[in-house]
Amino acid sequence: MKSRILIFFVISIAILIFLYIYMHRDRGRVVDPTHTVFIKNTEDGFQLNRNGSPFHIKGAGGLGHMKELAEAGGNTLRVYDTLNLQSLLDEAHRYGIALIVDIPLPTNESNDTYYADKEYILKIKRDIRNLVRRYKDHPSLLIWNLGNELYFPLVARENNFIKVFNQLVDLIHEEDPDHLVSTTVVGVSRSQTLSIHLMAPKLDIIGFNAFGNITRLKTVMNAVGWITKPKPYYITEWGNHGPWESDTNLWKAVLEPTSTAKGEIYKDIYLTYIDPDSDCLGSLAFYWGYKHEGTPTWFNILDEEGRKSEVYYYLKSLWTRTQLEDTPRSKIQNILLNNTEMNHQVFAPENVMTVQLNMLDTITHNLSFDWKIYKEGWGLHEWIAEPDTLKISDIKNSFSNTVEFNVPEEDGPYRIVVSVQDDAGNFATTNIPFYVLNHDR
Amino acid sequence: MTDKMLKAPSKYQRFKIRILILIGFASIINFFYWFLDFSLIEDHVLYWLLMILIFYDTFRLIYIWYHYWDISVPRKPKTSIRPTVDVLTTYFPGEPKDMLKQTLMAIQDMDYEHTTYLCDEANDPELKEFCQENKIIHVTRDNRIDAKAGNINNALKQASGEICLILDPDHIPHQEFLTEVIPYFADPTIGFVQTVQTYYNLHESYVARAAAEQTFHFYGPVMMCMNSYGTVNAIGANCVFRRSALDSIGGHAAGLSEDMHTAMKLHAKGWKSIYVPKLLSAGLAPATLTSYFKQQLKWSRGTFELLVTSYPKLFSKFTWRQKLHYGVLPLHYFTGLIFLISLLIPIISLLTSSTPWNGNVINFGLIVLPVIVSIIGIRFYVQKWVINKGERGTHLLGGLLMQITWTIYLMGLLYTLIRKKVPYLPTDKDDEEKTSFYIVLPNLIFGLICIFSIVYGLYRDFTPFSLFMSGFALWNAIIMFYTLRFAYTLNAISTQDRKKMDKDFNRESKFEKYIFTFWQRGAVAVLGLVLLFTVYLNGRKEEIKYDGLAHSGSFNKPIKYLGVFAPIEDNGLSDLSKVEEFSKSINQDMDIVSFYLAWDKDLKTSFPEKQLLKVYHQKAIPMITWEPWTNTFNEEQNFKGHVLDSITSGYFDAFIGDFAKRMKNLDKPVFLRFAHEFDNPFYPWYDDREGAEVHFKKAWIHTWHIFKEHGADNVIWVYNPWKPDNVTSFFPDAPYVDWISINLLNYATHDQENYRSFQTLYSPYHDEIIKTGNFPVMLSEYGTYFDPGYQKLWLENAMDMILSNYKEIKAIIFFNSNVDNNMPDGTEGDSYLNWTIADVEHIDLNFKTKQMPLYLTKNKPRAESAPKKNTNLLANLSDIRGVNIKNSQKWKQDYHVKTRKHLESNFEKISNLGLNTIKYTSNQTYDYNVITISKEYNLKLSFGFWIPETINFMEDTLMASRLHDRILGLVKKYKDHENIISWHLQNDLFADGISQFHEPVRSYHLSAYVVWLQKLTSEIKKLDASRPVIIDYTLNGLNEKQAKRLFEDVLGLDGLGLIVKDDIYDDTNRLLENIRALDVPYVYSDISTTVLAKMSQESTNTNYFIRNWQDQHQIDKVTFDGVIDRKGRFKPDYFELGKYLGSFHHDVVPYSIRILKRLDLLGYPHKKSLYFAMHYDPIKGWERMEHNSNYKLEWALVKCDPYGNFLTINEVEGLVDYVLLDIPENYEEYHLRLTILKDNTVKSTMTSLNTPYYQ
């Protein structure tokens, strides 16, 4: 009996050892130091090399404003589209910026539709091949990011999606051995990260879109290390908490910190989670530009006119490791709706609302205030967001920090958004939600 | 009579009995689950009386089923013991001596050695002598202490046998009695053995028969079960005691129920008992009502006495089953009290016009049915174990006798309470006694009260509930009067017959046998199925209550038409033989045959009348594409300019008029596609000028009017634009257009660049057509280019699209021509295009869901055109301040019952508010109540008849004539009620029914309806010439002329009852304008207070009926348009109306409540979401409501159908100021309703469950 138990243990341990070795065998791409961009596995961990010297990614995701990026000390921009790629690459080259280029792909949810369609697969392969061939020799190119938030499934056998994904990785490598291929994981999903490790061995580097989840990043990567050899990674998006994970009010409208407060938030995150992580090959702040996500202002580091927010100055200080600039800038203290800071106020249409924006410094004549009221674009995804169609009131270039609005006539959730600009090219913004209920007829 | 011992149930039978009992028990639980809904209590006193009744009966039922659970038969031990036996019988002065002597002789004849004792209370010398002669020991005593028991105990002093058998003097033992019973005493723990008691005077009288029936089950399965439970009852007769057992309790116990008392004492001492279900003697049942009553009084008093005296003393010594048994058995005699309650419930209910319960009667039936089936079913099943086959049956007589004895049981209970003694008298064995009238009297009095309450109750309040209660009361009355039969039909059967009947007692007919066997086999299945089925039905009904009914589509499923253009040559005319050929090849009837007709001055020769008439012969309708070519008019001088202008200017009037006349003469429907493709530059009637659409519309309307003037009502106007862009801009709209048509031809083969799928071609039109409203669409030229192989694909794909996405397409005309020379670019080519279908037989072109009705190819029903007599009785009505009573129209589905109470309270409120008239729609059930009670409140009554929109006046003449007869019947019946002021034909079939048809079906239906109305109104006038007849009409600013014509067409109509919809008439000026355009007498039949108040300056002295008095609440319909809500509470509208009427002078303080909902994605399963109650404070603005004792909040989910009708309302449990709602599946179909209740007034608000994106 005893001998049986012994045999059982021996076999089990043997299997485990075998599995460990099997899983940790190097199935990745062979490192070739002659390539423009490659990742070297050194004693201190992975090291990204570009044009023969080590390169640490410091930058943001967006669609331009590269001058400002370079001025802030950033060296990399992630662009989300291949539209106008030539001019973007050229502009990047002008400012010495490296580009991470997103190649959009349908997610795993399309496994049974797009990925099962052979003609479609041929088409995207052809398109991607053309794209890569066309731009592979551009000096600004850093990484091909194959798909954003693809929801890699943790499955035992390759499905259509994984098959195609790997074929595409090989295809890009074949066409362009000089640059890396990455993909991004939504949040810091443990299962998706593991799936990429197990299912896409030839992928060079994993990117994480990490907001509130950035706290879990080290834990997840350590956990992956128990199972297989971890891949190099970098942070493809980071910033303050996203609208999906933020606080909400009574009717579940998201509550956004003022742009002034966001500066400190970015700093805290960077110094706590990004800077100290020596395994991480770099990070991209979100979002270098202007977009609607939850609110029209949620992630904007720059506004439509390229004005700079507080976050810009904090990032500059972090990237350049210098003191925070002490230039005079518009800084918001708080916003008051009918003299209270309460962010769950309900109004009846015939009333008038008074909104007041308080600034940290004295208000001078070189500040101007843009006031807008939007219908709450809740449930919208950013790629179909048309905040302007939701705009119902717009007071531009007011020089007063207090305005009065007539309460909108239609029932429903709204948001007052204010942006204050100075003549030095800075802006600050905040917003406050409110609700309209008509009297019952 | 057989003396074979019954067999105990086999394992399988026992299992079946238990299953049956479990089903019965489940039925009871099911009943209570639904019945204990306290929200349905109407009258508390009656309800709880009813509950006592129900609980008692349930309790009794379970007790009986408990005694069917474990039926057993003792095994007779094989033994050689021969104990000594004493047999005792008693004599009480007055008992017949012959009977006693007979008994004594039978005792002597028993085949087991024994000593016989006669315990003679009378010390009768005759009996003494008889005893001496027969070696019977005669015992007597000098007192009468402890009655029968004392008598026996006295004898026992002398007797010394180990076993003693006590026989009643009427009980004649069988010879083998002792031999059968003695062996059971082999077990020394057995205290007594009881055997069956049967009667040999079963057929002496109804009372005897009934009394015996009451014992059949008891001596069968019940006692056999007691045998298993150790609770065998000792009966005074035929009980064999072990002497040592009797001695251990100090002899035979005393009391009125001395037998039960003895058994109790023996059981308490630990003696065991056995029941031998074997017939070993027969006795006499009480044969007169007096003797039966005496016996029952004695037993009930005695048994109650045991319950209150001996039972508590012996309680601790019993086994648990004995505790139960002796505790529960006496409760049987509560029957008296219970029956009193069941007598009182309907009497009180009828006299006070109230009911205990106001749930749905059908639901009640569904929950009570399985219980009743179980009661009967189990009873019949266990009848296998009654002692004799003849004892099987319903035992109705026994039941009746028990019911009429209620006074006696009540007396027994009363005597026990006041501790009054009933003297011991032996059960009467003498039949000669006459029944005293006094014992019958209480029952007769109650019977009369029942009858009186029925008459009075129905006179006062006539509802389904009062009818139900009357039925209940009538049943009670019948029982009460049955007393007389028991009392006075003595010796109804001659002795000889009786003997024969006794002999036949156990003979079963074949039928009885069959039924019995069937039930033995099928009981479980039947009971189970009944339970399952009723539970299912009830569950389904509850589900409907919650979810509402899916509204079944009305009968007017749209008719679709299939047609063809099949010419032989390029002359624009279809050839009927080619049509036939095409029809055969696609195996479908052609409904439309297409012709192209260019304008030709010479109509005499060019009008193809013959061909057109032939089309009708072929059961189809012709369509003429009427092309305004002007070449034949060119010679004339005056004609110049654009053809459309010339039409408008009247240049062509004569020609058009002539054509119209010819069309009219066809006298059957004909589609007219006039000036088709007017926006196609190829045709000369194309107009490239600025404002072309105005010219076109003018010309069109001008033409239309000429046709109308010539009475060409049979023409169906088909509007056919060429480009999608022009669909709406050129559209002349109703009533000038009946159909929109589109030409849909794919001008290429699949390999060509300009090959288009159906969808690509049609969808631009579709997007425009839907803007025009609900017009039917015809594909007036339809086809794809001759293209063998690919035509099939194109056509079949097109048909799929038409059937699934483009449901507005109601007609398709195949362009089956190979002689077309019109090129797609609008030019005329040299060669012909071929549009014929290549392999037509193999293409699935199924389009029609039903055949076109044949009446369309016949003439329309003709309305009478007699000159109208202008009675204008409407002028007689003045100062009508009325309100509609809309609820309870469908009484079976409605939650409101128009009881006297309901009507009284509502009528009082109505008159107090300052209204003087009600409008009520007859549903027959409540007519009587509404008419009589409204009279009591001095309310005038406008009596309405509902004309369902589902009646097909064209085809279903039976339904229509039934409705006609019913309305006339009602007019005849009620015309003498003075408070009725008018007859009102309700439901505007133009708005709701007929208008949903398309031409030509619509005109046919309309004509048929008008003919029906003419007949109806003229006959109403014959019956009652004094009251106006009014018909409902929904005002919409569109069909005023049509309405006016209807009014003028229908003889005997005195005016229109205008239905004014709020959403249409925000602007009262428009409303008044529309009314002026009508120019007929009218009343407002259905109008809201708001609109009425707005108009009050402009229109004074108008008669009106406010929209609705109370919100409707039916199983599948809820409305919120009442002045009071569904629970009878005042809504803001009530105060508004009061103010309008001048009854209230103060303004109602306005306050607002609303629901605040969250930004939630609701579409996940099991999702909950929060909703907050908000109220508006004039100073602070909107605030969340707080807990406050001044008001109460009610939350409810309202389900709607896709048309926005409310189907059901179900309250949901809310918290202080918010509700956490379980989001239902398909949440888009629901609304959340919040009601705030202050004092007796309510205010409500409603919201959809979700906040839409981009709200």
A few lines on this structure:
The complex is a heterodimer of chains A (441) and B (1255). Chain A is of the alpha/beta class.
Our estimate of the beta-strand percent of chain A is 25-35%
Q: Between the first and last Cα atoms of chain A, what is the distance in angstroms? A: 84 Å
Query: How many strand segments of chain A?
Result: 19
Which bin fits the share of residues in helices of chain A?
25-40%
Give the largest interface pair and sizes: A-B, 26 and 23 residues
Sheet with most strands of chain B? 8 strands, parallel, barrel
How many helices of chain A? Answer: 10
Q: Which strands sit side by side, in order, in the main sheet of chain A?
A: 4-5-6-7-8-9-10-11
The oligomeric state is heterodimer
Strand content of chain B: 15-25%
| Helical content band of chain B | 40-55%
Q: Number of domains in the coordinates of chain B?
A: 4
Mean pLDDT of chain B: 85
InterPro entries (chain A): GH, GH2_Domain-Containing, Glyco_hydro_2_cat
Organism (chain A): Gelidibacter gilvus
Protein name (chain A): Glycoside hydrolase family 2 catalytic domain-containing protein
GO molecular function, one term (chain A): hydrolase activity, hydrolyzing O-glycosyl compounds
Account of the protein in words:
Chain A: Pfam families: Glyco_hydro_2_C. Chain A: GO terms for molecular function: hydrolase activity, hydrolyzing O-glycosyl compounds. Chain A: It comes from Gelidibacter gilvus. Chain A: One of its GO terms (biological process) is carbohydrate metabolic process. The complex is a heterodimer of chains A (441) and B (1255). Chain A has 441 residues and is of the alpha/beta class. Chain A has 2 domains: 292 residues, TIM Barrel (Alpha-Beta Barrel); 105 residues, Immunoglobulin-like (Sandwich), CATH 2.60.40.10. Chain A is 29% helix and 27% strand. In chain A, helix 7 links the parallel strand 9 and strand 10. In chain A, helix 4 runs parallel beside helix 5, helix 6 packs parallel to helix 7 and helix 8 packs parallel to helix 9. The relative contact order of chain A is 0.10. The model of chain A has no long low-confidence stretch (mean pLDDT 90). Chain B is α/β, with parallel strands linked by helices and 1255 residues long. In chain B, strand 1, helix 3 and strand 2 form a beta-alpha-beta unit. The two termini of chain B are 89 Å apart.
